[in-house]
Specification:
single chain, alpha+beta, 7-stranded mixed β-sheet, 6-stranded antiparallel β-sheet, 14% strand
């Protein structure tokens, strides 16, 4: 039997090339393009998808007698958590439209009914060429509301992302029109609150249309429904204040943030923040500054980076004050004019004044330079010696935090205290190392948090932190040791050691630590079971940018935990490992995704695929935490709960900062 992965590979390799004239891959005999033949038969001089759809829809289907109100249902084109969308034909005008109907099982939900009617009312009250028009609002015979709207034959920005990513001018032109449409909605008192690529539709001519006002909020009113957590918007595209604050406080700047997130996605191929789940994405948006566009795609224009950064400011007052201002800057960029978001800075103004007043500027500059030089010399002379001494001492300093006993989840057990004391003693006796004990009054500090690592190091004025765990494993002590650089909060080295003598192991490890601190040592380090340098999150990578793109996109889809998204994620992970068979992280993610698929599909042996992918990941990178997490999932699926504990603990030992590992355990 040919596996699905093989079938997918064959399909990718044998799929016909797109038609050079219309882009279609449909073929009839002798390689002729089916779509071009249809256009020629219709006598159309231009390639217009909307015209083709309208002509085909004129064909009556005798069996298609399912109707909703005044509409004949042709087929289903979309479905979400609240409603289903059909392609339908209006009986008298024979106009083909999109018809949205609420799902039957929501009929008893007052909240969902209010939200559905809110969408119809909000969109119907707006008349703008780039807002999807509502034609008619009605109810079915059983009282369920529906409304008809213009059929967008060009799909959405979500489906066009790959194409648009290669054409930044096209992306900017589209977003300028979308921003104008959103500004029009704001001017009429309506806040969208759920702007994302999937809600920006394209008509047959490629013009954008803002749709799905299901979360729309009238700016002058407030309602309990706008405060419901389950409908607060789409993580990755909503403003931080929308997820954490009351809906009544939201301003148009919330939609400006979403527009910036969409623009970021179109330019880079990914949202500003990625995470394993929705809460992780929301937390990042609230706590971290959005990444720079050029850090992901360095070839992009700096002005575009400035526009995105202005939209994605965490503080609403720091963003564009309106969608209209954003649209104006996007249009300025398209026309090659200076953007508003980057006014002339103070240093530039000083430079221009200096060019106009060269003699006076030279004199002032000389006075300032001589004054600063004299001040620096005076201060440096008195403090230079002490600074050098303190810097040299700090460069060779390490603070030892309490080791954690994983068997008891405590740092105060006999075993944990013995390991902590042994490492402190060994480092103190190692020549050239200045070892500091963790202060007893810092019990409220979590020594596993990168932020606390930086805080501990800054307070103690040390270069490194030593942290770790201990547990019983197969009759021996398993010690995990992490050496952390306090300046960045990053793990420099990690190694696992199974030992019968804690004292000898600590003495041996001190040699490795002294090497990292730049201190010579003649002690030979004990061979570690697993060891690696750097952060656990950087393991298992690839040098193939295309494979990395497939894997990152797959991780994003897999984090949504929807059936279709999991299937698509599996395809992307398979493609990533096809492009780079040594990409261990992609193998591990494929294993996790296949495990998730096994829960819902018993017709195929997903467990076998999961086990194969996980085994390959561990073989390629034995220190990859994601592979051990995938191994836990595989063992759980086989009901081997006790056997799953050890790889789960190993994943935690390798990457103790992972909340996902802790949750699995």
């Amino acid at each position: 039997m040919i596996s699905p992965g093989v079938i997918g590979s064959v399909r990718l390799e044998t799929e016909p090339a797109p038609c050079s004239q219309c882009g279609s891959t449909s073929r009839v005999g002798r390689g002729l393009c089916l779509k071009c033949l249809l256009y020629r038969g219709l006598g159309e001089e231009t390639y217009d998808d909307e015209t083709l759809h309208n002509v085909l829809d004129e064909i009556d289907v005798r069996d298609a007698d399912w109707r909703l109100g005044n509409y004949q249902i042709l087929d289903e084109i979309g479905r979400g958590g609240m409603g289903v969308i059909y392609r339908a034909r209006q009986r008298h005008s024979r106009r083909v439209v999109a018809l949205k109907r609420i799902l039957a099982y929501h009929s008893d939900s007052r909240e969902t009914l209010v939200r559905f009617r809110r969408e119809a009312e909000a969109a119907a009250s707006l008349d703008h060429p780039n807002i999807l028009p509502i034609y008619e609002v009605g109810e079915t015979e059983d009282g369920l509301p529906y409304f008809s709207m213009k059929l967008a034959t060009g799909g959405s920005l979500l489906e066009s992302q790959v194409t648009l990513q290669e054409d930044s001018r096209r992306s900017i032109a589209l977003m300028a029109k979308v921003s104008r449409a959103v500004q029009y909605a704001h001017a009429h008192g309506i806040l969208h609150r759920d702007l994302k690529p999937g809600n920006i539709l394209l008509d047959g001519h490629g013009e954008p249309m803002v749709s799905d006002f299901g979360l729309a909020k009238w700016l002058e009113t407030s309602s309990d429904i706008t405060r419901t957590l389950t409908i607060f918007g789409t993580p990755g595209y909503i403003a931080p204040e929308q997820a954490h604050g009351p809906a009544s406080d939201l301003k148009p700047t919330a939609d400006v943030y979403s527009l910036g997130a969409i623009l970021f996605d179109l330019l880079t191929g990914r949202p500003p923040f990625l995470g394993e789940h929705a809460l992780s994405v929301i937390q990042q948006a609230a706590e971290k500054a959005a990444p720079k566009v050029r850090s992901i795609k360095p070839t992009l224009d700096r002005d575009l980076e400035t526009i995105c950064a202005r939209c994605l400011e965490r503080e609403p007052n720091a963003r564009y004050s309106s969608a209209g201002e954003l649209a104006e800057d996007l249009e300025r960029w398209l026309e090659g004019r200076p953007i508003i978001a980057r006014p002339v800075s103070a240093p530039v103004r000083v430079w221009r004044w200096s060019k106009r007043n060269r003699k006076l500027a030279s004199s002032l500059a000389m006075i300032v330079i001589l004054g600063i030089a004299g001040l620096v010399t005076a201060i440096s002379t008195s403090r230079l010696t002490s600074i050098v001494q303190n810097a040299e001492l700090a460069r060779h300093s390490v603070i030892v935090t309490p080791f954690e006993d994983l068997d008891e989840l405590s740092t105060s057990t006999t075993s944990a205290q013995a390991v902590t004391a042994s490492y402190m003693d060994s480092l103190t006796k190692t020549k050239g190392i200045h070892a500091i004990s963790f202060p007893s009054d810092a019990n409220n500090t979590d020594p596993w948090s990168p932020d606390d690592w930086r805080r501990i190091g800054s307070k103690a004025n040390v270069r490194m932190i030593l942290s770790g765990t201990v547990r019983q494993r197969e009759g021996r002590q398993r010690i995990a040791v992490h050496l952390i650089e306090t300046a960045s909060g990053a793990v420099v080295s990690t190694w696992l050691l199974d030992t019968d003598s804690i004292a000898e192991t600590a003495k041996s490890s001190a040699a490795k630590i002294s090497g990292k601190l730049g201190v010579g040592s003649s002690i030979k380090i004990q061979q570690a079971l697993l060891t690696f340098d750097g952060n656990a999150s950087a393991l298992g990578g690839t040098k193939n940018p295309k494979a990395r793109e497939f894997c990152e996109r797959g991780r994003e889809l897999f984090s949504r935990y929807k059936l279709q998204d999991v299937d698509n994620a599996i395809k992307l992970f398979r493609e990533a490992v096809r492009l780079d068979p040594n990409y261990s992280l992609a193998h591990a993610m494929l294993g996790s995704a296949c495990q998730a698929r096994a829960q819902t599909d018993s017709s195929y042996d997903w467990r076998k695929d999961a086990d194969t992918a996980t085994t390959t990941a561990l073989k390629l990178t034995p220190t990859l935490p994601e592979a051990y997490r995938a191994r836990v999932g595989t063992l759980r699926r086989y009901g081997q709960w006790r056997a799953a504990i050890d790889p789960g603990l190993t994943a935690y030992e390798l990457d103790p900062t992972s909340a996902r590992t802790a949750a699995i355990l």
